[in-house]
Design a protein that fits this description.
Distance between the termini: 50 Å
Strand content: under 5%
Mean pLDDT: 79
Low-confidence stretches: 103-109
Number of strands: 0
Number of domains: 1
Structural class: mainly alpha
Number of helices: 10
Helix content: over 70%
Largest sheet: none
Order of helices and strands: HHHHHHHHHH
């Protein structure tokens, strides 16, 4: 098969895998929706980019067949999930107490793009199960580890990032387009429900360590 066709096929498969793995609404999805509803479109999208980068890291580990890194992540699974659960609980509590809209410069600065990006990245990277999901997805797509070709592995991983980013762009854009139609009271309840759901995810993560 022509090399360009092989690379294009890998790129498209990477996009599909990245999109499908990012799409299920979990704690990061809730966080992205809530931040987009705050009226700051960039904040919501950057949250998704942080998650997309973390997904790409796991995709790279699976795609490049980096056994040493995979073993390290598996060995430190407990500590990663403990950190992720604690961070998720703190974010959930903060969202529960947050006002429905950012009305002052001080409140806007409480959640800047750097914090939004890094919190989403570390929350996503703290779930080693994602590595297994990527390995299963690659196998389902008929993709074997392509560590023998740096170019092919890079194209595959780039596709994963594009696919994951496309999902977060779609989600944050869609939510941002409707945020102005919601009243402060509705946004307040969305904050509270989102906070409770994130704390619930955190509780589940922490209890799973026992």
């Amino acid at each position: 098969m022509n090399l360009s066709i092989v690379l294009l096929t890998l790129f498209v498969k990477g996009i599909l895998i990245g999109f499908l793995i990012a799409a299920p609404v979990g704690p990061i999805g809730i966080l992205c929706i809530r931040r987009s509803l705050s009226g700051n479109y960039v904040l919501g999208f950057v949250t998704g980019l942080g998650a997309a980068l973390a997904d790409t890291v796991y995709g790279a580990i699976a795609g490049f067949s980096l056994a040493g890194i995979a073993d390290f992540i598996t060995a430190n699974n407990f500590y990663l999930r403990l950190f992720g659960g604690a961070l998720l609980a703190w974010i959930g509590f903060s969202i529960f107490r947050a006002p429905p809209r950012k009305t002052t410069l001080e409140k806007v600065e409480d959640e800047n793009t750097f914090n939004a990006f890094t919190s989403a990245f570390f929350l996503t990277i703290s779930n080693p199960i994602t590595l297994l999901v990527f390995a299963a997805a690659f196998a389902a797509m008929g993709i074997s580890p392509v560590n023998d070709s740096l170019t092919q592995a890079s194209i595959l991983v780039a596709g994963v990032f594009v696919g994951a980013s496309a999902w977060w762009l779609s989600l944050s854009t869609g939510v941002h387009l409707i945020h102005h139609k919601l009243s402060d009271q509705q946004l307040l309840w969305i904050n509270r429900v989102s906070g409770v759901m994130l704390i619930g995810f955190s509780t589940y993560m922490l209890l799973s360590l026992i």
